[in-house]
Each structure stands twice: as C-alpha cells, then as structure tokens.
Amino acid sequence: TERRTGRVCAILPGYGGALVDVGLEVPAFWLPEPHSTYQVAPELGSAMEVFCARHARYEVRAFSEQPPALLQRGTGARFRLESLHPGEGPFRAVVVTSSAHGTLVDFNCEILGELRTERPLARGDELRVYLIAVDPLTGSCVVSANKVQDKSSAPPLSLEELNQGEEVAHRGIVKRITDHGAFVDFNCEVHGLLGPFDIDIDAWPDGLLIGHEVTVYVTSMDLEKRLVRLSMFQPRPSQQPSASRASQQRRSTRRALPEPRSGQGRARQRA
C-alpha cells in the first residue's frame, strides 16, 4: 500500500462510498468501514488522505487507515499475478478489509485477493489461503481458506473413491430443499445431504435456497444405501468413523431416510 492525498471526484450512493482522484490512471474506490475515520461519504471535491492498494489491474481500493501489514519473510518480494496458478497454496494472508461488499486479503501478491469465505472475519485476522481463480483479463484473483477440488477438470467421484473426514473441502451447489435438509451436488455420483444441524447459521442466517454455492465436508457415508452426509463444519479427527463402521451403525441405529417431499423452501436452521 502507498499513502496518497486526493480529492473526491464522485459520490456512490448505492455503496455509501466515493471515488477519489489520487493521481493514478483510475480513481480509487473508497468505502466506509467500522474502524474508519469517515463513517459517511465525504463531500464532493473534498480532500482525502488515503492508503491505496490494487485489487485488480485497473481497480484501486482506498482505505482511510493503514491496512494491516503481512509479516514479510525472506526477500519480501511479492508474487507476480502471472506467475500464479489456481490450486497453489497455502499462502499466508491477512484480512485487509471485510464488509458486506466482500473480503480482501493481502497474501503477498502484487494485488489483493478476493476471499471466498462463509465465516465472519475481521480486519487484521491472519489465515492461510489457496488460489482458486485467476482472471488474466482483469488482472484479479480469488482465494479461499479451503483447498477446493477442481470440479471442471475432475470427473464425478464414486462413493468408493470418496474419503470422509479429510481436510479437503468440496464446493457444491444446493440442488434440492426438503424437510430433512438440503441436497448438495458436490461433484460426486450422488448428491450429499446437508442436515439442518450441519448448516452454519452464522454464515447463512436466512437459510439456504436452491442454487446457493456452499463449502461442505463429507462426514459419513453408507455404501449400501448410497447415502452421503455433509456438514459445513470441518469434522474432528477423533470423530471420523470409517465408511464400513458408519454403515454398520446406520443399519443398527437408524432407519432409511423417508422419501423426501418436493419443494423449494428454506432449509431449517439449527435451534
């Protein structure tokens, strides 16, 4: 980031922010933050002292206060975007800003990464991220705190190939909502069931709807009944039964799931 003095050249009512002319090829995009000196957009033409960082090749973000710095190691040289590829990581990162408009992190790249996350984060939080997408046209990138499997290049997994309890998250799409939970397509031969108590209501306070993109973990499988149970919460190693044992437990303690009713309502939240 670099400190610059500029003038407000446009007010953005829809965002509650402003564009600031800081002498670069494009104005810097400024948004108010809870910790910011400015809680409302300044007046048109007023002077602002801001800290600037690139979010894309032709997009600059402006901050009223010095963003949190990532502790440098080694030479401190930043990665060039063109040298990075999806799937690489983990990279050390620090949250620069987090609001309703998104979360940006500094992961020692020449630009800030847009973080896809389903848990609340605060400015200054440190984490590890994986690169999941690079757009060479806009010069932007997307990162995730989870190592996500690439569905575009990988064929659907069979249940026999699927391992439960791994520290590998699966990106999925909600395909159906029933009284028993949400059925999610996560690039497996069958859709997994995300039960009401396995939905993170902090990340989804209004519940799930068909088409929502979620990150899930495989918690258990029943190979005979061809059933997979999912959770938004990463399973603990001590609570990871084998597929065969899980199947035996279900045969002895649970009945088969009833035929789900059709409908596109919301998945029930946890109590």
Description:
The chain is mainly β and 271 residues long. It folds into three domains: 2-63, Nucleic acid-binding proteins (OB fold (Dihydrolipoamide Acetyltransferase, E2P)), CATH 2.40.50.140; 81-144, Nucleic acid-binding proteins (OB fold (Dihydrolipoamide Acetyltransferase, E2P)); 150-271, Nucleic acid-binding proteins (OB fold (Dihydrolipoamide Acetyltransferase, E2P)), CATH 2.40.50.140. It contains one helix and 15 strands. The strands form three sheets. A five-stranded mixed beta barrel has the order 1-2-3-5-4. The protein is elongated and about 70 Å long. Residues 238-271 have low confidence and may be disordered. Residues 234-250 have a biased composition (Low complexity). One of its GO terms (molecular function) is nucleic acid binding. Residues 165-233 form the S1 motif domain. This is S1 motif domain-containing protein.
Mean pLDDT: 78
Q: State the helical fraction.
A: under 10%
Strand content: 35-45%
The CATH topology name of the largest domain reads OB fold (Dihydrolipoamide Acetyltransferase, E2P)
How many structurally independent domains? 3
- Work out the helix count: 1
Question: What is the makeup of the main sheet?
Answer: 5 strands, mixed, barrel
Please give the structural blueprint.
Elements lengths: L1 E11 L4 E5 L6 E3 L16 E10 L2 E5 L27 E9 L2 E5 L6 E4 L9 E10 L4 E5 L25 E9 L2 E5 L6 E3 L18 E10 L4 E5 L11 H11 L18
